[in-house]
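CORE FACILITY INTAKE
Project code: CF-77B
Contact: R.S. (postdoc)
Sample description: multi-component assembly, four entities in total
Requested service: structural model of the whole complex
Turnaround: standard
Below are the sequence entries exactly as provided by the requester. Do not edit them.
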Amino acid sequence: MMNLLFVCGLCVFFGVTLLQAVFAARASAAVRRFSLWAMLCANLLLLAFSLTIVLRNSTFYLNLYQISAAMRFSFSVDRLAAYFIMIISLVSATVCLYSLGYVEHHGSNTGKNFLLAMMSLFIVSMLLLVASDNTFSLLFFWEIMSITSFLMVMFDRDQADTRKSGLFYFVMTQMSTAFLMFGFIAIYHVSGSFDIAPVTGISETFKAFIFLSLFIGFGIKAGVMPFHKWLPYAHSASPSNISALMSGVMIKVAIYGLIRYLLFVLTPDRWWGVMILVFGTFSALLGVIYALKEHDIKKLLAYHSIENIGIILIGIGLYLIFQSYGFSDLATLALIGSLFHTLNHALFKSLLFLTTGSVVNATGTRNIEKMGGLIKVMPYTGILFLIGSVSIAALPPFNGFVSELMIFQAFLQSFIISNPFLKIILFLGLSLFALTSALAAACFVKAFGVIFLATPRSEEARKAKEVSWYMIAGPAIIAVLCILLGIFSFQLFSSLGFTLPITNMAFIGLALLVILGLVWLIMRLVGNRTTRRSETWGCGIISQHSNMEYTASGFSEPILTIFRPIYRTRKNVDRNFHDPGRSIFKDGIAEIHTFKLFEERIYLPVAHFIEKLSGVVSNLHDVDLDTYILYSFAAVVILIIAVGWFI
Amino acid sequence: MLWAYVISGLGIMGFMLMRFSRSEKRADYLNTLAIIHSAIYLILSVIALIKIQQPSYFFSRYLMIDRLSVYEVLISCVIFLLSSFYARGYVRRLVHSGEIEVRELTLFYAAYNLLLLVIVFAFYCNNLAFFWILLELTTILSAVLIVTLNAKENIVAALKYVFTASTAMLFSIIGLIILFALTRHATGTGTLNWDTLMQQAGTLSPRLFTFAFIFIFIGFAAKAGIVPFHTWLPQAHAKAPSVISVLLSAVLLNIGIYGVLRLYAVAHKTTAWHTVSLILIGFGVLTIIIAALSMLPRGNVKKLIAFSSIEHMGFLLVGIGLGTPLALFWVLFHTLAHALVKTQLFFSAGILHQQYHSNQFEDMKDVFALQPLAAWGLIIGSMAIIGVPLFPVFLSKLNILTQLADYSLPVMFVLLVCFLIVAAAFAAILIRTIPQSSESKLEPYHVSLSMQLPIVILFAGIVLIGVYFPAGLHDMLMGIVRSLGF
Amino acid sequence: MLSFLIYALVNTVFVILISPLFVSLIKKVKAYMQGREGPPLLQTYYLLGKLLKKETVYSGNTSLIIRITPYVNVVCVIAASLFVPVIYIPMSVGGIGNIILFLYLLVCAKFFMALAGLDAGSTFGGMGSSREMTVSAVIEPVIIIVFAALSLLLKTTNLYQMFAISLKSSLFINPSTLLISLSLFIILIVESARIPVDNPETHLELTMIHEAMLLEYSGPDLAMMEISHAIKQTLLMAVLINVLIPWGLTATPGVLSVSISVITFIAKGAVLAIVVGVFESLFAKSRLFRLPNLFMLAFFFSFSTILFELLR
Amino acid sequence: MINLPVLDDITKILFVLVLATAVLIITVRTLSSLFNIYSVQSWFIAAVAFVMYLKTGSIVLLLLTILTIAGKAFLVPYVMRRIQKSMNMKRDVEFRYLTPIGSILVGTAMIFIVYWSFSKFLPELSSDDLFIFGAVIGVSLALMGMMVIFTRKRMITKILGYLTMENGVLLFSLFIAELPFIIELLIVIDLVMLIVLATVLAFGIDSSIDEFHTKLNSFTLWFKE
């Protein structure tokens, strides 16, 4: 039964890949629609599969195929894996539904077909990655995931910035693979097998090395702060349904890997927890702060992914710390919190990316300064985006709030830890975490307000139309899930066998509903219900104009001013003068750029160093015969001396 | 058995000398002969693989057929067959674009077939000195093949090749003489036969063996393109017609590695082997580092591919140096994988070169519009060569690295970084190339089927061995490793 | 369960009824400090009544956001009022009384208010919501850390239990409580939009934050916004009171005890309102970008409390 | 099979003379005299071979002597002279990396280094000090030839340098007479072919591509039969 579900799902995916890839040149919109529906069904199959495992808390093993004895594609799905499979298939299903409407808008016929082929390969590689029970297949599908996503990022390859993003993404993703390979092979070196099984009897330092390389490897993919740089580029470059998949699911896969190796393979030390906590906190804070100043809506969302990954990491860090002190129920609270936040973020982030895709389609720009007033022309999309914003801003009773509540609870109860130093760290982390979520709320007031409210700021925005049915249905499902998961979280956990010290949101929801009813009733009774339409009050200016509105930059300006030290800006001014004495000013250009700290202090210097080095090395080759012979001569002489010396 | 090779080979060459009047026909005629030649050799080798019990010796033990040599010969024959097919269309293009004179064709194909003959016997020969001679012959022949094109740079490239390779080879004669003296001193009668060396290895003095080994290694390294004797390689590969670049990169380099492998097998029987391992791994890592760094600023597609060949040779050297059975197993597999992938890359590059008459990336505009197949070949080949899953290089890379981890983790880390740089180099260039388009639309020329077919076949083959490991291959490789005494 | 429902009803109604009183009381005090007569104590009730009778005017640019916001606000603060017992401390049901939830209900109200500020597309509204979100973002860590300090002090994260514990143990002598209540007071000032953070009287774009968002409101909607603001203020006052000087608040329902606690609460609330009024008249509206210093002060107080607790 | 100590002395003298010729090849500028020096060097090598023949009496050495004289003292210089005529250049005056003096110094250093290195190993192989001498002289001759290749500018001279290296190797190999004759022969033929090819290529460098190809054809056809 389970086998059937699993294998059928996979077969459909591979079938779709083949179909789309082989007929890439010819396949028509009908074929595409067919394959999308097929993918949707396959996702549902796997959803059913994973849900049964999650609910029954059983495990599932399947040795699908093996290249050689050492290199098996064998899968074992336990509750954790099934949970992530659930996330993947759920989000992918909705994305497929959305894509039914979306894909037809972009690119050449071949391009679309190829995109679908890659998309299905991408989804299936993520599923199998999570299901893998040995390092080999994990690495295998990890690479395939990276490559397919890279190809999809390159989808509209004619834009220059897409190319830049693509290169950036490719290099970073290869780097993460390299680090993972190092870690895995190091594990193999001690355990002597590719199985994902507890490693024992290794020295502390060696274990630390393994942990660090794995953390970097997964961290790059998850977009943890110092390694996050690829994320905004890649997400803004790729088509929106792909961004939804990447940001909603792919970076979660990295989280899965981290959790898997921390829980089931390595035996963590306390400082790992602290380290992860610190990294998480900074990713969260800086992520949201960078998001505040973004006006490219997709970059903004990408930075929020970084923030939420940070929150998830905070949860994991807390888990490790509490575990190391033996407060197992608090640890469980933190871990479940971060896992639940993983699900929630997957949901509302894909919801946001999908709706953003619709908006970008409708307006033809990613710059929110050019939008505005869209809720009147595309109300459904607007409402969906609002739900997404409310959940990502962690407002009760939505799902985002519940997971953050759990992490807050874990934080607040950290007073039972004895070590005062650690306690102070935790309280600082707590305050920064609070700051993060407040800023997130601010950021989404800005995003929603500027995109959907007030009057249109550009012709495109004025002419925008509501998108097709598919592109509303897909997000709508997620939106409903966001609410349900929020309200019935308590019942959910108890049905899974976790009784956690959190508020019963169903109760709160009920209370809110009752109060709403009462208030509404009262207002009906006592309130005057006549309304009148009129102008916005503009100090007596008769015609309200869109460029009198508050802009996104204006909105975030006070916060930016307060956090000025974090965004350093660089001005470059070049002036032209009429006279040689440079006194009579003709014209000039003045620009202010935000100083991209990580890019300009870490990434580019390293890249430049390597470039310089390789330049030197390759210059050695561009010479004539004499020099070549000289090289060999020197080499031979050195060899002769070395032989005489050593042997 | 081996006579069959000689006779058929010489017969083919006899046919070549027959003059034909019309030039167009001549190209196809010669090419047909070449195809027949390589086909016959392939069949013969398959027979040799199945019928003849390995090892068996011929000509007073100067020649032998054993598992390893048959394996290498098979690879070479397959590559030769594919490139003969490819050459059919390609040479026509060359003639058409005036890059090669019709009168050169005889010379070209003569050298081509002779090269096949020589290579096969280089693999089959049992005697080191004889092996050395054939190795020199391959240098000469490939030099001739390079200079058949109408360009001064080709002569320069060929000269560089000849000088760099053969000066190094002279030192390996010195090594041979020392080895010979060593065996004579050890057992009374000197010998340079592989099999006898294997038997007598125990009696040789490790110090002197290492001494001899280093000198012999210099020559083989030059042929295999190991830093610092690799200098000839990039230009030779870049200037040669793509068919020949394929042979240089996918077949000739293997011979050098093959020699090193044999020698290492002998060394493994002495106590000198860990010194030798050290030397090999040292040179291998150096090679990989230099190659990886030189790939970043390349703008020339064929040079890029050539440098990646250097890098892979270094990797093979490292694998040999590890000297564990698994490592060698995967080294052999990697040889196959590398040969196939390289062939595909150079074929695609050849098509593109015919389109743009340049190997520079920035000249290649609207690649997808003009030459979709070649573009895909280039992309897929690059992915395969940087070791992406679905492709065989990934398997061998992973496994050799795993073996390397037991030798030294830091070295492995260095290699990972180098591979990262290589990947970046490929990605950077492809990403820069693929999207660029030009206002002046070129006409896509008609790529004949004989040029497209090999690429498709190779793609299928690569993916096949990338995900499916036939038991036969597995047993064969295991057999080779065991026959080498590991 | 039933008892809880009764509690909810009574408590909520009481809070709703009492909060306008405090508002106008503060106004009165300020008027006295400025040497004016000031409005009558029931002024706010009159105001609300008048607004309920008036018609609602919506700008042509607005969307449904501006229409739902008043309901969201009222609902959220009333729900929050369940968390702050002022008449007596019931048994917590379904985790009601959780600090975080309490705070986030208030944030929810604020979120929608800010959206509504942007909805009409007027410059003032945008400015108001921008400033509001800024201030709330910066004050958020302070609030959290204050409550963290409380939970550290009282070893619980539930308001009911907090009050119960502070009721049992005489915390007045405990310096930590004083420190915390100082920062709680600052929070009260900030959240109820008072000088030096905000200026509730004027409608000058230079000073206003909270009012700017309400500019487009009129009629019953405005009434709802006002009452919810008043309730929010009362709730924060209640928290401060019940933590610092909980006497009079009972843990056992009963006519006598409840009436006692009601009376005491009104008294304490009045005192606190007067303090607030005096405080407001002593200070001048400070620049927006000076505010972080004030918040840092609160942060310092609460963090030093934590250090106190750790060192003990 | 004569065994006279004088033979050893003669051999040593010949070694010295060979080195002297090598030094000359490094320094001399006129091409024609370079060729002469080279053929003289080959004569010396042949002489060494002959002496060794007298000493050991193995027929292989005699054949080698003849081969060397035929191939290296006559054929190769002849071919090169023709090439030189057709390219009509007289002198090769430019030096790179090393001045003649410098290269002589380096060459001497090479001899010492090689001696220092080899004397640690070869005594194990044979007690005969001529063998060691031969090895040292041979290898250092090869290295000097290499120096010629990368110090001189003209292709022709480079080829001479290569030939010198080859002579060195040959000199060394004389002491391992058991190396089967067939292989010796093949090696020599091989090298000769290499030389001819290199010469033709060198010709191609300085001549028009067209006549180069005619030459190439004739030459390759010649060696295919």
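Facility notes:
- Confidence is low (pLDDT under 50) at residues 221-225 of chain D.
- Chain D has one domain: 5-224.
Invoice: internal transfer
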